[in-house]
Design a protein that fits this description.
Elements: H1 3-29, H2 32-56, H3 58-79, H4 87-104
Helix pairs in contact: 1-2, 1-3, 2-3, 3-4
Length: 111
């Protein structure tokens, strides 16, 4: 994936992380404006992902995006919303970080 593709991927991930954070706020408060904002952010994220997929393909873009979002949202849940992770969940987040590194590893790269 090119540098430009990575920038678009980062923008899509930011939109999805923001959308999920706003959606979590809606789940706690029930404020319909928060739900509308979350849906708007999901729309923006998906529109950006279309561009990313055109440039870099589905497998790499979605795999990296999914795992990075998992890690970021786990951190947001803990730091912002006061949620707690079990040791097994912390291990899962750590394995997610390893997964992103392996997925993004350059083709033909050596360890």
């Amino acid at each position: 994936m090119s540098g430009g593709g990575l920038v678009w991927l980062a923008a899509a991930m930011a939109a999805f992380v923001a959308a999920n954070s706003v959606l979590r706020s809606y789940a706690s408060s029930g404020v319909m404006l928060a739900l509308a904002g979350a849906l708007g952010l999901f729309l923006v994220g998906n529109l950006i992902m279309v561009r990313v997929m055109r440039e870099g393909g589905l497998a790499l873009a979605v795999a990296i995006s999914s795992v990075v979002q998992l890690v970021l949202l786990a951190l947001i849940g803990v730091l912002w919303f006061g949620e707690r992770l079990t040791p097994v969940q912390v291990t899962g987040v750590a394995l997610g970080i390893v997964a992103v590194a392996l997925i993004a590893w350059p083709q033909g790269g050596r360890v």
